[in-house]
Amino acid sequence: MTKCATAFAAIGLGLFWMMGCAGKSQTDGMGAAGAQNTAGSSSAGAASAGSSGAGAANWGACQYDSDCTLVSNGCCDSCEPVQAAQLAAINVSHVADQQNSVCPGGAACAPCPTATQYEATGKYFKAVCASGQCAVLDTRESPLTQCKVDSDCEIRDGVNCCDGCGGSFVPVSKTADFCDGRPTPCPNCVSIGANQYQAICNAGTCSFKPPLR
Question: What is the pLDDT of residues 105-158, one digit of tens each?
């Protein structure tokens, strides 16, 4: 082999080696970029999971009135007369969550003064499902207590689907549907004392007939 041929051969080998190294370096670089992109995709997935997980904190989601219940906004139940702002309506499955959030560790609550049937207002509030969210309804401002004449009204024990057994009497419309069109099996009990009160229609709303003085 001549000196020229030897020189050309050496140059060829050098070029081959350089091209091979350059190819390896480029491949490694793409591999690193691919790993970074994969990690980025995983982070985005975690963020999406976190966003969807936030929906679990919606304690008021509901389908029916029976999914909802009333709770106090504070550690202790409000004393009578109760206002709507003192209550919250949430899904029955999140009562413990709400209590732990509002009053972690619990509290010692003082007893409330006694209120008469005429003074008590908490019994008029009902938890209802409105547009997929539990809400507080004041039945005194709803069709449940609408009337035209006294005979449209009656005394009922509570405003839940089932008549109560505890003597929380309220004047309501005789045609009112407290079960949201979904009849529910009710406990067999007798409310005592309702006949002590009379319901009248006062300005289009069923109300208590004032007691004799």
Answer: 888 999 999 999 999 999 999 999 999 999 999 999 999 999 999 999 999 999
Long-range contacts of 18-24 (CB under 8 A, 24+ apart): none
Q: Is the dihedral of CA 92, 155, 143, 189 positive or negative?
A: positive
**E strand map for 92-152:** 125-130, 133-138
At 37, which amino acid appears?
N
Q: What is the spatial distance between Cα 72 and Cα 82, in angstroms, rounded to a whole number? A: 10
pTM: 0.70
For residues 90 and 71, the answer to whether their CB atoms sit within 8 Å is yes
Structure tokens at 152: 């449209």
pLDDT 10s digits, 1-27: 444 444 333 434 343 333 333 333 333
Contact 211, 118 (CB under 8 A): yes
**Paired residues of 129 in beta bridges:** 134
